[in-house]
Amino acid sequence: MLTSFWAAFWASISSEWTKLWSVRSTWWCLIGAVFLMALYSVPLGFDAANPNPNMSHDDQLLHAEDVATAGLLFTQFALIALALLTVTSEYASGSMRTTLQCEPRRGRVLAAKLVVVEVVALVSGALLAVLGAGLGYLTAGDYGVFDVSSVAVVAGKVSVYMAVVVALAIGLALALRSTAGALVVAFLALFLLPMVLMMSGMDLMTDLSYYLPGTAGTEYLGIGIATLFGLGDGLPYGHNGGLGLFAAWSGVALLAGYAVFRRRDA
Questions:
Q1: Smallest Cα–Cα separation from 172: which of 161, 164, 183, 162?
Q2: Per-residue pLDDT tens over the stretch 123-143
Q3: Contact call for residues 225 and 195 (beta carbons, < 8 A)
Q4: How far apart are CA 26 and CA 79, in angstroms?
Q5: Which of 69, 129, 206, 259 could form a disulfide with 158 if both were Cys (CB 3.0 to 4.6 A apart)?
Q6: Contact by Cβ (8 Å): 173, 250
Q7: Ramachandran region of residue 79, left (φ > 0), alpha (ψ -120 to 50) or beta?
Q8: How far is CA 15 from CA 96, 113, 174, in A?
Q9: Where are the strands (E) in the chain, listed by range?
Q10: Looking at 16-133, which runs of residues are DSSP E strands?
């Protein structure tokens, strides 16, 4: 029985893998991620290559690993879109009914989709981090600093971050069944809402912003949104705590999405 379970699960994964790479949207999302990372990294490098005469040389050095993490704030949305489309495109086209006819166990369908997207996110996250770091270093000239160990650590963290964020995206996609709606919610939760609450100047709103997924995720990467507003010392958790909170948000989104997935018809 255990053998048949894994055989069926592997068949579901193979099916989801084939579907993912057989549509153009997957390739466009990955190309968009590369473009966004380059669009951020190259100007940052060129800016560092034109030093400010009023600053010391060391203060103007551009560390490649910092370019990789900062560029992720916008690049992530290309991979979020990819994750969303693995679910919402099937609802839009009606092919979700075919998927569930072939595999009526909805938990297995969700698990297969999650495994496939997680593999893509883990690999893509690491490669995008290295790409951003490399482009920033090459365009910064004498002011670029590329430390292999530091870049490797950041690439690993970016990979983990992307794995968590695409899980959040899949949960939203299952719950909302709309690409546009889920993308808007993801943008609000990960980027806009934390910034708006911090800019409000109200202590209650600022404290609330600390526990949003966007704040927790960027805190794990070491580029916390709160730090940008001079509030970094007020965070009640560190980098590892940020990852835990971020993962908890993704878990809640997945559970909510699965509950909707089980109860509503395709």
A1: 183
A2: 999 999 999 999 999 998 888
A3: yes
A4: 9
A5: 129
A6: no
A7: alpha
A8: 13, 9, 18
A9: 62-63, 144-145
A10: 62-63
